[in-house]
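Quick entry between incubations.
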Amino acid sequence: MSRQLATGLGLAALLLLGCWWALRLVHGGPVGPGFWLLVLVLVAVAWLALDRLSAEPVTARIVPVLFGAWLLFLWEVVVAGFDVPRVLLPAPSAIGRTIANSLGLLRADFVQTFVRAVVPGWVMGCGAGFVVALLIDRSPFLQRGLLPIGNLVSALPIIGVAPIMVMWFGFDWQSKAAVVVIMTFFPMLVNTIAGLAQTSAIERDLMHSYAASYWQTLLALRLPAAMPFIFNALKINATLALIGALVAEFFGTPIVGMGFRISTEVGRMNLDLVWATIAVAALAGSLSYGLLALIERMVTFWHPSYRRRR
Amino acid sequence: MAAASIAQRGGIATPGSGRALPVAVVTLAILLVWYLGAIWLNAPQVIDRYGDQPWTWQQLAADSWSMDRPVLPAPHQVMAELNKTVFQTAVTSKRSLVYHGWITLSATLLGFVLGTLLGILLAVGIVHVRTLETSLMPWVITSQTIPILAIAPMVVVVMGSVGLTGLLPKALISMYLCFFPITIGMVKGLRSPDVLATELMHTWNATQTQVFWKLRWPAAVPYLFASLKVAIAISLVGAIVGEMPTGAQAGIGARLLSGSYYGQTVQIWAALVMGSVLAGALIALINLAERLTLRAMGAQT
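Done. Structure below.
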């Protein structure tokens, strides 16, 4: 164990103790300038601890977690210490309590929005974009026509079709899935086309010299080479899909769903539940993103950006 | 556009063929599908209205392209609505799309400027301070998996309840959305000078400030412009969604919402086209700035 690691761990332990003390103080009653001095000292200790720990490869992995916990602590202390009105920003502890108290409600919302609308929409939109890209792969003419338009459409505020989809497909999850399909289609199309063009002439000539057919070249060379682009689109779309479904719910829903919960509870100024829903959405978004990144690492293990880390 | 040039370098394009013809053909095909779709989607209502009267296909097509509240308005109806609300209406009127477009545009631009500054600042910090890199970078990425756009209306309402109204709440949402591509692009760009160049600076005994201004910053400029194009597009999306809460009086988002409440499909589509034109124009502007800047910096095109 190096000295740096030892100091880092020692500082982290000190930090933990200090934070616990500060939390007890701030929830015990009104606090004075002495308390904020303590927080300032803790900020300095946290910086030193993170600095030492991020220098060690072993502990560098947990630094982001510590940093996140540290931000939560600051949030809690500032909200409790300054008596920030709950309408403006509830404390993390209050949000946590709300999550624990309304698990059933949150689960129903999650199923309605994420399982019924986001996932099918994402699969259909990405699938359609991928298939269309493959279909027009053999026609340079269509490609040159569709690429500029696809690029343009990807930059447009497509989310605006949400009210139209709600009119066409009704209030239930179908309209949300439709918005998700439209939002995810074009990034996938553009990225797959760009990815399929990634191979160099030398590689394709090699396949040609093996007498490989179009499909063999596609499966053995061009699709694997396109994978980084395809995963890029899958990851972008994971976030887009969640946003699309939630925003579409503002234009009309049955009385369940995360977007519905957010808009109605804001109206009732019940901000704890709003933040609880946001926490669930953020968790779902981060987990799907992380899962995709993991799969990407397994599929594109050959890519320089992953090889260099070893 | 970059992807298109990659495709051409990849040897897919046949020599001597431009892009104008394919784009025109695809656009025409889309228009054709649109008109046919308008008939298909509107026909049930039109036939319903005919009742027992006999009708012909021409009549059906003509009627389904000129409904008052069509399920899918035909392109020329959207154009007519645009013409009416953009050119035939005074700019200061609440019925003018130019007025609403301007409200959205100002929030977009303010958020874009703030987000760009924040993004560059974060990138400079991340590149220069190791602790920031290990602790902050993962959270920069996580911050984007939070569907902030979905809570944009809430942010606007909550800020309104403490007295912050008008441009700023919308601009803050745009800022939150746009700092991310800038940070990611700039971290990549500021790190893009190769080892030889950095070591050359080192042999000249250059300070960190000098390395930054003479090597890192110029190397990052192309990355900056690529990020700016992404950022301005999502900044516009942020501003539009920020206008959707019921309290919003003006802006493209408010037009979308009121159109959806009153079933004015033509108005929704006109607002959508207006938003798209704005997005296209903003990106074209950045493209122009990019070309001028890179040429001034001596790039070969």
